[in-house]
Amino acid sequence: MPASRPELSLVPLPRKVSPRPGRFVLDQDTRVRALPGAEGAADLLRTLLGPTTGLPLPPSAEGRVVLALDPQLGGLGDEGYGLTVGPQAMLLRAARPDGLLRGVQTIRQLLPAEALSGGAHGISWELPCVEISDVPRHPWRGAMLDVARHFQPVSYLRRYVDLMALHKLNVLHLHLTDDQGWRMPVDAYPRLTSVGGHRAQSLSDGVAHAGAYTRDELRGLVRHAAERGVSVVPEIEMPGHVRAALAAYPHLGNHPGRQLDVWTRWGVCDTVLGVHEEVFDFCRAVLEEVMDVFPSPYVHIGGDECPTDEWESSPAARERAAAEGLAGPGELHGWFMGRMGSFLVEHGRRPTGWAESGTELPPEFTVMTWRDPSHARTAARRGHQVVTAHHRATYLDYAQSTDPGEPSSQPGPLVPLHAVHANEPVPEDWAPEEAARVLGTQAQLWTEYVTTPDRIEYLTYPRLCALADRAWSGGRADWSGFVERLRHHTTRLDALGVPYRPLTPRSLATASAGTAHPPR
């Protein structure tokens, strides 16, 4: 179908596409009829198409573009939609508002690519007549962006969300804190950003780096994302990856009198939070402010790569472990995460964390497994909700090829386009009850070696297109079909000014490369 109808080369692939003869034309006389509950999707359609096409698409009870919310369409779930484009009218239906938002993105892809960018003259805004019935395979289809290592302005985060939404991704996981920077404002602890938001230099380029968001900026980002059907999941690292916090407030560490700098190196820092009660007061206060800004039901609190050396050598930590009936300081990690997880549960949230083995987090946690695919099944068998994030298939900060012109990247295995598209969050041999616990998957972009939006997008696209395709469409990987659709889809990326890695024989190669097992 894409070869004969390239405008139907949609990414991700809808569940069912039935071409029909004819074309539907949007023009200055086109009106939009939004039935009750569909007003948000109609507003999004105008917001996205008005500036680029010059069409006002005003509301009208007689509109030929009809958006309808129908809760009786139970088979479409929360995000499915039905789209019928005929020569005289277009009807978009869904059972839930998010389904209408997904359908709006399909309408954008059906239009000429110039409808994404604007500035074109003499373009006829036509859509091919088609009937589409579409339901996603997984409810969690995400992308994680690390703004702790290299801060990005909120204006770029809005663009990042826009690109995600075009590909029907629905979770922006925002990595806000780490050893190298703290970007989340916390009124009760202002030094977290005034001190923790600055580092003297970066290992990759020797340049000083700083940045932090305001609460208003983050709330605005949450609204912008919600209007596009994207949830923003905040991540505040604990009890490791906290060097920036300890630079601001040394008394929260295991050596209260020690003055630390915000870390200027990459890798895993051995400084971790202490386990005295003042630390938990701090963590609760931070998470209360996080929950005030981010309405997401999921709150990520890190949890991995937490060296226990400081606890092992700390009399206070050893005493705390003994007082809590733990076998030793090594068990303080699970105890710590359990306390903070319970706090989030008490506030109606779902604690989320990185799982290094699938067995170390308390049962109430939603876990992201990244070290080995088998860990996802281990976690599912323990009863966890699981988001798969295997580094060999979802870490976009790793190089895409060995071409000498490739930008500097995280040392480790190659993650070529094919590896991303071949990744299956739920292998066929899993038991139904195990598969049911997998929410979905997401890509990760850690930014030790990624400083600018252009670099972010070069590393992200088209690999994120591949992840979106599999996360939404599911089923067996049709690599050749995806490549055929992607070749047309790159015209859309071009229209949006995305500096993606070009499709070349090397980038489309299917042979795997690299065997290293790098740290997160």
UniProtKB/TrEMBL annotation:
Domain Beta-hexosaminidase bacterial type N-terminal spans what residues?
A: 8-134
Check the record and name the Gene3D superfamilies matching this protein: Chitobiase/beta-hexosaminidase domain 2-like (3.30.379.10), Glycosidases (3.20.20.80)
The first-level EC class reads hydrolase
Record keywords, A-Z: Glycosidase, Hydrolase
Q: Name one Pfam family in it.
A: Glyco_hydro_20b
Occurrences of domain Glycoside hydrolase family 20 catalytic (ranges): 138-474
Superkingdom of the organism of origin: Bacteria
Catalytic reactions of this protein: Hydrolysis of terminal non-reducing N-acetyl-D-hexosamine residues in N-acetyl-beta-D-hexosaminides
In short, the EC number is 3.2.1.52
The UniProt similarity line reads: Belongs to the glycosyl hydrolase 20 family.
Name by which UniProt lists this protein: beta-N-acetylhexosaminidase
